[in-house]
Amino acid sequence: MQEVEYERMYEAEQVSWWFRARRRILSDVIGRLSLPSDTQIVDIGCGTGGNLPMLEAYGEVTGVEYSPTGAQFARTRTESQVVEGSATDTSLEDGTFDLATMLDVLEHLEDDQAGLDEVYRVLKPGGHFVFTVPAFMMLWSAHDEALHHHRRYRRPELNKKLAEAGFVVDWISYYNTSLFPPVAAIRLARKLIGGGEASADGVEVPPKPINAILEGLFAVERHVVGRLRLPFGVSLIGVARKG
Fold first, then answer.
1. Spatial distance between the Cα atoms of 25 and 33, rounded to a whole number of angstroms
2. pLDDT digit string, tens, across residues 24-46
3. How far does Cα 15 stand from its chain's mean position?
């Protein structure tokens, strides 16, 4: 990720519709898991730490972030431990965590299979893995380039990679489905006629009324994500377990 994006993300994470709605969906997904009372959680690739306070509602949290800039921002949000480390080599002990999260992280890894192997290693047997990634290469845009993405995913591809790492997949679904048509139209139009700066979508906060409408449209999916398998969306979300 470009360094300037960390500051922009830090400023937007508390107000932007995309981050706020995603946290509401993730909180609902995690709240439905069977987690022990003393749950140990690791957020690998925690970025500027916007998800750490949400995760703290479910247990003791450790954040892992490769960028010193991102880790520094994250520490201002939380009293949880934030360590600097690679998503493919966290230096954490084997079999330590009941829940691991990688929230829009896998796409940043040149070797995403190594990242999945690392998650599997640090989880306890039966531990849960909650993940999100961007979907469909047809949506590739300046947003992906600004964030140094290597790929966007389809559900069968991600399911196969998880199985190869040893995970038992509980479910994977597309989400951000209601906003897929306008997002796809805008990004495809930009490919055809140009336009759009090399910057990340979601960190430019729209006027409050529009921001609230977009958050509501996205967040309402928390009622169906994990219960129904949505057929398409801007992103993928899922839960797997260490066998």
1. 13
2. 999 999 999 999 999 999 999 99
3. 17
